[in-house]
Amino acid sequence: xxxxxxxxxxxxxxxxxxxxxxxxxxxxxxxxxxxxxxxxxxxxxxxxxxxxxxxxxxxxxxxxxxxxxxxxxxxxxxxxxxxxxxxxxxxxxxxxxxxxxxxxxxxxxxxxxxxxxxxxxxxxxxxxxxxxxxxxxxxxxxxxxxxxxxxxxxxxxxxxxxxxxxxxxxxxxxxxxxxxxxxxxxxxxxxxxxxxxxxxxxxxxxxxxxxxxxxxxxxxxxxxxxxxxxxxxxxxxxxxxxxxxxxxxxxxxxxxxxxxxxxxxxxxxxxxxxxxxxxxxxxxxxxxxxxxxxxxxxxxxxxxxxxxxxxxxxxxxxxxxxxxxxxxxxxxxxxxxxxxxxxxxxxxxxxxxxxxxxxxxxxxxxxxxxxxxxxxxxxxxxxxxxxxxxxxxxxxxxxxxxxxxxxxxxxxxxxxxxxxxxxxxxxxxxxxxxxxxxxxxxxxxxxxxxxxxxxxxxxxxxxxxxxxx
Length: 469
Ligand code: 5AD
Ligand code: SF4
Description:
six-stranded parallel sheet
């Protein structure tokens, strides 16, 4: 039994991180024979990719996936801590599982992901959700097989959460969601400690994967016919800083570009670590897509300072302008409204910044206090009604620019990676290089290919088009 601890989670040691290969104890290959698992994933692409690893491990133990929770022998929740509503969803799900377990006491229930790293969550599980079989955190994903084995022998709640990030584990089995586009981790954790954010506590210190391991993974993906990779990290722009003297994200992108994978994306960028050199690398390489997600969070220097973001609106705009000079680039962002003490004037500075940048799209959030973060200790005297009003105003503006940016694409032709059948009857869907969703009519043989699509109709959140050529 190991429960989470924030003192340890906050520490950043500068010791070299060990890199080891995944191994599973012998005899676990058949643990899942005849058994089904149900996995629910909350949160960001990191979590989605962790779930691909979870599925990979369950696969080699011969579990079968079911999308019907009622048919499962094993239920796993891969959780997210970023805002209160992600929490509520996972606890709501635990409530439903509790009922299910009353009628099927033999099912095994496990909770993992970021919420498992939270002291308060683990306490609540111990008190109110004792039916859970085991909890494991983001630093010991690879222990899933052995924890599962234990829980088959002993049904009591087992909590195994490490608060100090451990080794980097390579070659964890993976079952990818897509045959055409793949997530590739390049850096784990975050050392930025923005004052509102729980991630540096739930995901630990910044640790870059070795460039050789990343490139090897991508070369394999190319061999398997993948068309697109997304390099993943909480802050990809910090890549290499903990590992190399002079090998950064820019150099990594150049090397990835040489693998000839047709499309390369990277998320998420922190403006602080975004160099001019990187801007040039994006500008000069066709397979490094012209798409940057660059969270700004606020347009007020005072709020940015209180958030611990380490840049000003002026320096953000400078970087933004430099990126915008890349032809055809799409830039998206994240914005928080209602940070403790944010005045109406400060919020209006955010609107001004949006009017300046005209983002292609944005994720917008009401500030949500997170356990143990510095901002959660600040006085928050803005009413929920006011916060909702600000979010509404912001969204109106963001949507106006999203629609405008989509309308600018009308009657022009773009390359789209066709991913599958659309939820729109009889249509296919895919994404442009700038990550815009396009629906169009076409033969299913196009799935997995990059095709030219002429845009015929533009909405706020998607486009309609037709195949040309
Ligand atoms: N409250 C609201 N939004 C948050 N984000 C991170 N932490 C919080 C919080 N406590 C948002 C930021 C970040 C995105 C992933 O989630 O905008 O960029
Ligand atoms: Fe959180 Fe800031 Fe790190 Fe992003 S950069 S994960 S917002 S601490």
